[in-house]
């Protein structure tokens, strides 16, 4: 175990736990978000519903057994007149099939019936104007069974009109769909249409009165009415009514949509004079001869989609159009949706109408939540002068992994941004050879590796694997593998434009030939045996897989799907797709001396040195998994630890933490030691207590050998807790980890003593309580001193929707732990103060320099509203010359601006105050200071306007500023040394 004389080597983890109980309701403890929080804005979309209230909407709904896609023949007789539609009415002169010589008259006593070929069908009561087309009448009179046509008079679900059905569906949708600003338009009696309710005014309390007040009594000028809606969104003058509209667009990134619900194509539509007009115009569209004249409906939809209705300077906001044909299959409505950037749905019943509206809204919400094709930087890794950057793009949720060389002298990113050494996603898409994709599960009583392929479809469909229809398993497997990429997908499957899914929170990890410093003969032989091992980049993606890419070429070597995720792979095919997380967690790779096994689950010889990867899922699932990756071409699944594991009484929640691979003393082992995985139990665990714990699992088998539960509060079920990423140290430098530190959601920092070879003597003590309004969600850094440890950590969380707007003051702490049982608070520490200074276009922070004296450490209260620390710090240097680097994050309060801003901070390790030497390059100031009043001060912080930061350190102290919009920018520090050489930080925005 490589641990410095002064600085304890740490390995991270994320989750949370407790030590003190305060105002339990103060912090948000909502459900973990499956969307990247920095993409989910709070601006509700405008959805204007255009309800067709033409006379034909009084038509009674067609029978559910009728198939409009089938052509039904009738019974034809010579000498008679046939009409292409039949009107039924309780009064007036309805059209009937009549003989030529009757004078076209109808017996008034039989006006509610129609008799042909001896079949008499009574219309549903109450009698209303009803228009059915000839194909339906052919089915009704010549093909329907007696039970089917007889149900017209008895089945209440059939005795409703189209307008009644539409009213009911719209009412239910508005009452049950939140987060949308609904509005309502109707058709006018003659020209155009009119607004019934503004967007945002059609609410659960107003919708019934609004829709009930609309009667089916007009023509169908859909094109004119859509033009009126376009004027409404633009805030223009009304075309067919009086006055000027006020646009419903209240924010520069608000999405806008129209849903047209109609039972017919337009009638009596006037010409459209917009830029995309393409249809000819009748001289008088209101002449009865022009009832079905060509419509400009699709032209208006194109104008709305390609145009700009935004009242905000520099913004482009269009309106997308969705169309729903009620008992209608219309090429015009289909083209209108295509032109309008929406979708077209056809329905045959009230149930299918409800489904169509829901599907339209699901597609709208999906696009709204995903953002407008935002390409986003996510984790990156700096290794051997190469920077590996992951990014993704919504709403397609495609993943990218790029390699760039770094200039050793200047830190410049060579080839950035458009010429990487390679990009793994594009190489995978162009690959012609079969992929090596594996999974694992219990087969024949043994946990073993299986190929994830259609050849194993029957087995993979089973309950212990995908739990999916065996008949459809091959379709799903081929889809997940990308075998049909670029071809036709199975019916109902989402179209994928890349085989590589989004990489969001899983930081890439590189591993190659063994490079440990262990000196035993066995490890030296291990290094020789694998000295030419191919270097791979491991990265988890939200396509269900842990991917391994060749570090030199970017080609995928293999991929692995953990068993715990198999049953939810089917969600990836959904269209529309709602983002779901999979392998979204941290990856730890280390060499360890363990007994391993073969791919078939059998024991592999004797114990020896192996390279092991342990991975979490973060919000992708409640569990961890481990692989033996000694042979870079042949991954061996070792185990999975899940929420149902009986050996963890507190239970695993979502595995947000970075696993630790450690060597511990163990008197029960023949060798006197055991290699283990130290794991946080995670968030939203399965037990009612929702307590926090540190789980110690055998690295070879995954068997839980101990679970140290620290949160035993009676209130833990009300205010759930969880352990954050721990750091491990070796205080006496004997090669065994003896102490771990980790914080929790209730603001407590815990010390775990695992130094004893007797597990019964392992224990946990709370060394510091910040309070429940200061949750700890990132690992600390620890420096070992004579007689005590200095523990550095920040507070704040960014896990659920409520965290985006929380404004509790957060802090950064440096706490001295003298290994006693005392529980410190902020009152036991010295507080430093922060002053902000603007100089030469940049904003800096300077700090006070109060001495710590007899106090037990120091703290900084972060002054920014919503400012927090959600990434682990890094302590560098020694004693008085040492400094602590950390970053802060402030979520954007503008829902149109993804991500947020933050600060790069570097403070004196001993006091938390001004560093002893200048640490930032200040333009025009060779001494690295900024003017503050009549004096000059060394700045301790610099404002980042957007994005993330990941300083790899090194002798040049080079920080890489990573922006949310995919930008990367090297930043050189003025001075400072790093004890461990090259080392990668996690990003500021721990997404």
UniProtKB/TrEMBL annotation:
Q: Which UniProt keywords apply?
A: Calcium, Fimbrium, Fimbrium biogenesis, Metal-binding, Signal
Does this UniProt record's set of keywords contain Calcium?
A: yes
The signal peptide stretch is 1-25
Protein's UniProt keywords contain Signal:
yes
Instruction: Extract the Pfam families matched here.
Output: T4P_PilY1 (PF05567)
Q: Which GO-annotated molecular functions does the record name?
A: metal ion binding
Locations listed in the record:
Fimbrium
GO (cellular component) term, any one: pilus
List residues of the PilY1 beta-propeller domain.
500-836
Disordered: annotated segments:
931-955
Protein family:
Belongs to the PilY1 family.
Name it: Type IV pilus assembly protein PilY1
Task: Record the organism.
Answer: Geobacter metallireducens (strain ATCC 53774 / DSM 7210 / GS-15)
Tell me the name of the encoding gene.
pilY1-1
